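Figure 3 (text version): structure tokens given as input.
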């Protein structure tokens, strides 16, 4: 007989599930990635070609045609606007991919709910892990662009994984929330696109935070995209360390979000079979 998990036991329960099922997770993530390109002529080449073409379009339109410049934080250092824009957009692509898939993760795997003893929480982990692989390809394109235009990559770039880890955790926590709510409220899937757009224009991806009024700057920093975007640019483009205070606060928030997401999913998944 199953019992309601203890409030403090839930996150550790999911973590243990991730460790026990790590082999299954790797296989599911690999299958999920390959399924995107299964019948295409170029196969996995598209994983690199798509972000490369996307960057080329942004770089040409915004830099060559519109001639937009992004203010630099470092004297005598100016980057192609396409590079600055893409460094933020790749993080937005990541969260959009996960959030778009999350509301239907359980609905698309009903057999796992009704017929098989399966750790349903891994579905969000698979979606997030698959998106991380796509993000890695996008990051590789960004580095290639830096080498092409600037002929150098700052050594601080090596610290990027430490900035992205809490960001991935926040997205995973949100995915657990959305995948659970999507079972009971099908309308949530229609809101994701709007939320994604708000996250894009309510972040410093398209413009520097410093150009906004102080009251709006505070609002921008509440966007889960803002800290990782700014920190990534500091490390990769400007070659400086990001605000450690901001990262510390963001990391604390990420722990809370992923913890609450895990707890919510564990508590609500008991009703999935009845609804589906």
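Below: residues designed for each position.
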């Amino acid at each position: 007989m199953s019992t309601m998990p203890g409030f403090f036991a839930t996150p550790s329960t999911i973590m243990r599930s991730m460790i026990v099922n790590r082999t299954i997770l790797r296989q599911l993530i690999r299958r999920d990635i390959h399924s995107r390109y299964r019948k295409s002529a170029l196969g996995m080449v598209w994983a690199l070609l798509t972000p490369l073409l996307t960057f080329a379009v942004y770089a040409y339109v915004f830099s060559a045609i519109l001639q937009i410049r992004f203010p630099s934080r470092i004297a005598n250092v100016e980057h192609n606007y396409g590079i600055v824009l893409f460094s933020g957009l790749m993080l937005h692509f990541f969260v959009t991919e996960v959030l778009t898939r999350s509301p239907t993760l359980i609905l698309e795997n009903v057999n796992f709910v009704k017929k098989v003893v399966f750790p349903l929480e891994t579905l969000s982990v698979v979606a997030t892990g698959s998106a991380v692989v796509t993000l890695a390809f996008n990051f590789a394109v960004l580095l290639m662009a830096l080498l092409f235009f600037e002929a150098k990559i700052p050594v601080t770039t090596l610290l990027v994984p430490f900035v992205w880890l809490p960001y991935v955790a926040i997205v995973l926590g949100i995915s657990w929330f959305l995948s659970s709510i999507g079972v009971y409220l099908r309308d949530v899937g229609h809101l994701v696109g709007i939320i994604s757009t708000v996250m894009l224009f309510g972040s410093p991806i398209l413009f520097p935070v410093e150009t906004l009024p102080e009251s709006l700057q505070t609002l921008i920093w509440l966007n889960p995209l803002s800290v990782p975007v700014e920190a990534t640019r500091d490390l990769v483009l400007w070659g400086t360390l990001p605000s450690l205070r901001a990262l510390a606060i963001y990391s604390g928030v990420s722990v809370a979000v992923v913890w609450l997401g895990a707890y919510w999913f564990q508590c609500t998944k008991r009703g999935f079979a009845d609804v589906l």
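The two ends are 21 Å apart (CA to CA).
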